[in-house]
Write a structure and sequence with these properties.
The chain contains twelve helices and 14 strands. α1 crosses α7, α3 runs parallel beside α4 and α8 crosses α12. It is globular, with a radius of gyration of 19 Å.
Length: 300
């Protein structure tokens, strides 16, 4: 199948691209710069431009582009960038595929479990309502921006991804060096739930969304059982054979991270109900196996 991917140089997009290429799929990577070969196509999400030639003949589009939530301190300008990169980019892709005479059958749009906000000890799944705050508002607008594709009859799926356990980047990429140095530990009181997923299962789940016609709408991409931050950090210590006794108090995190600290310290107890009901089988459902797989490298 010919498959177009935005965000193809990011942590998840690059791993997805390797997986698709390894299985013989034709990949089109959408880039903001001048394309350097037949496997690249131009788009400009700020202007709403998507090269229609890059979409021609595609059976599926996977849209993963967006500014990193934890890459910078949340100034007013960066919060606009987080929102615009998701909403404008999704609107551009959705409008482009909706305008095609022969559109792709499937659009898989990246989203996030930030949709649910701080759930405390309450378990949520795809049937739960959106939470309150900046990230839930962004996720609601993000998913709503795909309406042109959905209204055109294109099967549209929202991959609400949790914390991806990977050594190469993302939140976990920042944790590994700290724990390897023996100075890791819980964040805040450690009672907040972290809904994680191994990189292997994240990629397998995205491919499952592409290949499963019955799936539409939101699908949570998280491991079956969310764990508390205290449980996660203890597992990191065990796997890496390092102490995990140091704690970062909540006030310190608020000083260092600013507004973003409320999301790091917040609790998201998310279950992947629709993913499990659709027959998906996790290779690494447990946190220790997920950590070991991440240490094995990008293809583990």
């Amino acid at each position: 199948m010919r498959i177009a991917v935005t965000g193809a140089t990011g942590l998840i997009g690059s791993a997805l691209g390797r997986s698709l290429k390894a299985d013989g799929h034709d990949l089109v990577r959408f880039v903001r710069r001048t394309p350097e070969g037949p496997e690249e196509a131009r788009w400009d999400p700020q202007r709403g431009y998507v090269d229609p030639e890059g979409l021609a003949g595609c059976g599926a589009v996977v849209h993963l582009a967006g500014a990193g939530v934890g890459d910078h301190r949340w100034t007013a300008a960066y919060k606009r960038e987080i929102r615009d990169s998701r909403v404008k980019g999704t609107a551009a892709i959705a409008s482009a595929v909706a305008a095609m005479a022969d559109p792709p059958a499937t659009l898989v749009c990246g989203s996030a479990i930030g949709y649910y906000g701080d759930t405390g000890d309450r378990t949520v799944d795809e049937g739960s309502r959106a939470g309150e705050g900046f990230l839930p508002e962004v996720c609601v607008e993000w998913e709503a921006a795909a309406a042109p594709a959905r209204d055109a009859g294109i099967r549209t799926v929202f991959a609400r991804t949790g914390l991806v356990v990977a050594a190469e980047g993302g939140a976990w990429g920042k944790l590994f060096p700290i724990f390897k140095a023996g100075i890791g530990g819980r964040l805040g009181n450690g009672r907040q739930y972290w809904s994680h997923i191994s990189m292997h299962d994240e990629i397998a789940a995205l491919r499952h969304l592409i290949d499963t016609p019955a799936l539409t709408g939101p699908v949570n991409l998280t491991a079956p059982e969310p764990l508390t931050n205290r449980q996660v950090t203890a597992a990191m210590g065990r796997v890496l054979h390092r102490p995990a006794v140091f704690a970062v108090p909540a006030p310190v995190m608020r000083v260092v991270l600013g507004e973003f600290a409320q999301d790091v310290l917040g609790s998201q107890r998310v279950r992947p109900t629709r993913l499990l009901e659709s027959g998906f089988v996790f290779r690494y459902p447990g946190i220790e196996d997920s950590i070991r797989a991440a240490l094995g490298g990008p293809e583990a």
